[in-house]
Design goal:
Blueprint (H helix, E strand, L loop, with lengths): L29 E6 L3 H5 L1 H10 L6 E6 L4 H6 L6 E7 L2 E7 L2 E6 L4 H9 L5 E4 L19 H8 L7 H15 L5 E4 L6 H20 L4 H8 L5 E4 L7 H11 L7 E3 L4 E5 L15 E3 L3 H24 L5 H6 L1 H14 L11 H12 L8 H5 L2 H18 L5 H16 L14 H8 L5 H12 L8 H25 L12
Parallel strand pairs: 1-2, 1-6, 2-5, 3-9, 6-7, 10-11
Antiparallel strand pairs: 3-4, 8-10
Helix pairs in contact: 4-6, 6-7, 7-8, 10-12, 10-15, 10-16, 15-16, 16-19, 17-18, 18-19
Length: 502
């Protein structure tokens, strides 16, 4: 039975085998504000910072900010920001209490407090994990200036809702006060994520400048603020009630929101931090001049395969990644998917794709994580452009076929259409759900419907190979409609079923 709640008071009573912060949390000062305090951040960046704090770098405490929900704050505030990181593989589980989160804010409740934290001169880095959809891009990749939250932030700069609004107002205030700007470090799965966020924030600031008649915040952000790109990698399944009960039994105290993860972790960062940074490289972070080759390898091999496993797994009745990957047909498909994606990666960057895919196969087979396929399936319209579509277009441009890559896009469409039928109505979600629902109910011919989905999601917009890619996806979609994933895979020579005639 557990006794009490994880906190500073109960920290020293935990079992010896549980790792706890090896530093004085009272003495640490804030150096980082993080926007988007979700499970991934708490399994990844906080763990690296925790190691730096243990090494004596006491001025890098994290101020966590939730841009939407109070759930994380409500769970961790009574625990003094402490929580358990459970590192799991088939051999067992290691528990580590992370202490690097110093304080927590919920932006909708206290936007002024968030802005005060961002303008604190001690804050030298702002990191973000807000998911792809929170960058509020239009179909062409530019800032969606008509989005209601963007419109709100432009009219209410002192009470923003979006990351763009908070960053722009904080940078404006720091500039007015003579405080050097912080470095903005994006940790989301966006292509060239630092450069992408830099461009979006300049676009936001330019809209703000035009409203204020002559202000030049956009130029300041363009010329004076560093936005290094980074690549992050660690599998973080959603925490279940069973996880909470198991962790509480091992700790002897309750933890409202422990985080599950795998032993593997990776962080590659472009080394541009004018205001300083923690010595992350001491703890396995790779500091580089250009992150793009690493980013492309991760997006196209890990994330691309994850999407394929998720949609094929859902359509095949597999609830978790390890179960889907154990399906011989899906495993064969993933190997072929990698074979298609690898030639689209840069050849002169020293990437060891053979070792990387061997490692990925072991990670996907981890039975201890129970990484749900429905969790990975969320927000496919935002994820597939960089995970799948970019590789498929690169193959077509090189005169190669994207048969397996294009099947992932078709599997996404088929899985979206299956909700409310063979899949539960809200099994996973997508920002385009309402519009997709209207499309699916229109009963358009398959190729017309595929083109309409591409138009809606902005896939391959303006690319000369767009129509050919649509043809591939539509062909796969016909197979999904006729015989589900078994027939779609059989058409590629995978599984026991012969391909359909014609």
């Amino acid at each position: 039975m557990s006794s009490g709640r994880l906190s500073e008071r109960t920290l020293r009573s935990l079992p010896r085998e549980v790792s706890v912060p090896a530093y004085d949390r009272v003495g640490m000062t804030p150096g980082i504000v993080h926007l988007g305090v979700g499970a991934f951040h708490r399994a990844h960046q906080t763990a690296y910072v925790d190691a730096c704090l243990s090494d004596g770098e006491s001025d890098w405490g994290i101020v966590g900010v939730s841009l939407r929900s109070p759930d994380t704050r409500d769970a961790l505030a009574p625990q003094d920001g402490l929580y358990t990181l459970a590192i799991r593989d088939s051999a067992g589980e290691q528990l580590q209490v992370i202490g690097s989160i110093q304080s927590l804010f919920v932006a909708p409740e206290k936007p002024g407090a968030v802005l005060a934290a961002l303008t604190d001169p001690r804050i030298r880095i702002v990191t973000l994990t807000i998911t792809e959809k929170a960058y509020l891009r239009a179909a062409d990749g530019t800032l969606d200036g008509a989005h209601p939250d963007i419109v709100h932030d432009l009219a209410n700069p002192r009470a923003p809702k979006t990351a763009h609004g908070f960053l722009a107002e904080a940078l404006a205030r720091r500039r007015a006060a003579g405080t050097p700007p912080f470095t903005v470090l994006c940790c989301d799965n966006l292509p060239a994520n630092g450069a992408t966020l830099h461009r979006l924030l300049i676009e936001f600031a330019a809209l703000q400048d035009s409203r204020q008649g002559g202000a030049d915040l956009a130029r300041h952000i363009a010329d004076e603020v560093a936005f290094p790109s980074s690549m992050v990698d660690r599998i973080v399944p959603a925490t279940t009630d069973a996880d909470r009960a198991r962790i509480a039994k091992q700790l002897g105290v309750e933890d409202a929101w422990p985080v599950m993860t795998e032993p593997f972790r990776q962080w590659v960062i472009e080394d541009r931090f004018p205001a300083g940074r923690p010595a992350w490289e001491k703890f396995g972070v790779t500091m580089v001049e250009d992150v793009r080759p690493f980013e492309d390898m991760k997006l196209r091999l890990l994330n691309g395969a994850h999407s394929g496993i998720a949609y094929l797994g859902l359509l095949s009745g597999h609830a978790t990644v390890d179960r889907a990957f154990a399906d011989p047909s899906i495993r064969q498909f993933v190997d072929r998917l990698w074979a298609e994606a690898v030639p689209t990666l840069p050849r002169d960057a020293g990437l060891d794709t053979v070792a990387y895919t061997v490692e990925l196969a072991a990670r996907f087979s981890n039975t201890a994580l129970a990484h749900r396929t429905a969790q990975i399936a969320n927000d496919g319209s935002q994820k597939l452009p960089q995970r799948i579509v970019a590789s498929a277009l690169a193959r077509l441009k090189a005169g190669l076929l994207p048969e397996h890559l294009s099947l992932v896009a078709a599997a996404w469409i088929a899985a979206c259409a299956a909700r409310g039928g063979t899949l539960p109505e809200s099994h996973f979600t997508d920002p385009l759900d309402a519009a997709l629902g209207d499309l699916f109910s229109s009963n358009l011919p398959t190729e017309e419907m595929t083109k309409a989905v591409f138009d809606l999601a902005g896939f391959a917009k303006g690319h000369p190979e767009r129509e050919r890619l649509i043809e591939f996806v539509a062909t796969h979609l016909v197979h999904f409609k006729q015989g589900g994933p078994k027939l779609a895979l059989a058409a590629l020579g995978i599984g026991n079923e012969p391909p359909p005639p014609g």
